[in-house]
Design the sequence.
């Protein structure tokens, strides 16, 4: 960790010392061997009271995934990371009647804060407020809306015993509107007693060890070899990975369903040998947003994989509109500690298009190229991101692959029937010729 920078405030107000450190590259990053991975900085905040005693301490890592509208009315995904010029203005110690506040500011007008409340025995996070500034052209180069945008979301932090330190190495996600906040490697203690950080930890549920080890992702073309002094065991062929189970996902706007999706998803992460990961619908939750001209479906597979699909509407004539898949975002998480190790994005798709008011269907396998090293394979796809009525799919427009299959079936059946008719006709001619030969011999 770099040396902390201590800043003292006048008039007995809290003082805050902050430091930033460069995170190590996770082991799984090396195992996957994919490009596009990034390192993140940790932020350390030490808030002190008027006597220079620590009253609030935090060390954590975070980043933000934001969807915003461009000047061309398209929607893009962008990533906002902490910059080097982090400040701490507004952090407050808190007491029995006043909430504690942890606040940081960074980059070109971005800020983040969380307030903590306490009871006689516990403390916990209350609300998180995040403000991003679309005037930051580096992050939002062509934003249609200019200026600060504020998101407020309820903190999901569990109550922590006073004098205990809350620790969560695994990744936590908070989604609100068009923003996904991602946190990991969190250490925090509010309402520190006597200026001394507690030695006892309260772990988040995700960090709590279980009796059974975590099951790793399904791996294709990987076998395990053992070395002994005896003759080596015969080599068995790697077991092929089965197609993923089809998941049923939906979004609501108020009490009305606004998006329906049935799809089986499989990630292909390229390395020396391909790593295939089936997305399990039983452990996958759906979130996102619906709109008149854009819709986003975000899938979270047990805090190990995040996949986002963005659909937009286009005019194909003066009276007709179509929807299509515009962008796909994939975030891979380290199964060892839950940290984010990749955020691959492709915003140049023009797939899965159908007229507005209908649905799109493709039972055959399709491949989406997200980056040079990450692909998504889809199976049994049926999607309708707009104008859902009565919680049911509308008439489906089928993909070309399915249409070819449906076209080939009657042709094949017709050819078989034609071949059978020819055989019957030939048999009839042979039988008739034999009959004539018999009559002539008599």
Sequence:
């Amino acid at each position: 960790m770099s040396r902390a920078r201590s800043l003292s405030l006048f008039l007995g107000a809290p003082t805050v010392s902050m430091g930033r450190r460069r995170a190590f590259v996770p082991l799984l990053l090396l195992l996957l061997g994919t490009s596009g991975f990034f390192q993140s900085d940790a932020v350390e905040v030490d808030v002190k009271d008027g006597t220079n005693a620590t009253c609030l301490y935090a060390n954590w890592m975070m980043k933000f995934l934001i969807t915003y509208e461009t000047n061309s009315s398209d929607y893009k995904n962008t990533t906002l990371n902490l910059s080097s010029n982090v400040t701490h203005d507004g952090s407050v110690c808190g007491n029995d009647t006043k909430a504690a506040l942890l606040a940081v500011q960074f980059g070109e007008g971005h800020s983040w804060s969380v307030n903590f409340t306490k009871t006689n025995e516990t403390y916990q996070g209350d609300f998180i407020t995040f403000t991003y500034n679309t005037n930051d052209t580096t992050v939002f180069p062509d934003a249609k809306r200019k200026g600060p945008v504020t998101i407020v979301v309820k903190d999901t932090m569990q109550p922590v015993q006073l004098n205990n330190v809350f620790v969560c190495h695994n990744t936590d996600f908070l989604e609100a509107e068009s923003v996904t906040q991602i946190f990991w490697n969190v250490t925090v203690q509010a309402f520190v007693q006597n200026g001394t950080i507690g030695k006892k930890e309260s772990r988040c549920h995700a960090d709590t060890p279980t009796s059974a080890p975590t099951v790793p992702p399904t791996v294709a073309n990987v076998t395990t070899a053992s070395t002994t002094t005896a003759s080596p065991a015969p080599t068995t062929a790697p077991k092929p990975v089965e197609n993923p189970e089809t998941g049923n996902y939906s979004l609501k706007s108020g009490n009305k369903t606004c998006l329906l999706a049935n799809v089986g998803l499989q990630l292909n992460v390229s390395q020396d040998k391909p790593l295939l990961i089936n997305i399990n619908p039983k452990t996958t939750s759906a979130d996102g947003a619906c709109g008149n001209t854009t819709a986003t479906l975000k899938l979270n597979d047990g805090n190990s994989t995040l996949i986002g699909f963005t659909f937009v509407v286009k005019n194909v004539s003066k009276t007709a509109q179509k929807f299509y898949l515009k962008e796909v975002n994939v975030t891979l998480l380290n199964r060892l500690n839950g940290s984010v190790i990749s955020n691959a994005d492709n915003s140049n798709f023009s797939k899965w298009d159908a007229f507005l008011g209908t649905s799109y269907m493709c039972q055959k396998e399709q491949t989406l190229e997200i980056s040079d090293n990450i692909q998504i394979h889809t199976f049994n796809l049926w999607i309708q991101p707009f104008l859902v009525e009565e919680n049911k799919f509308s008439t489906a427009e089928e993909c070309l692959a399915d249409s070819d299959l449906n076209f080939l079936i009657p042709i094949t059946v017709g050819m078989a029937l034609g071949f059978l008719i020819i055989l019957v006709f030939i048999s009839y001619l042979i039988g008739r010729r034999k009959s004539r030969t018999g009559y002539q011999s008599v």
Summary: The chain has a mean pLDDT of 79. The helical segments are 27-32, 400-441. The CA atoms of residues 8 and 15 lie 5 Å apart. The radius of gyration is 30 Å.
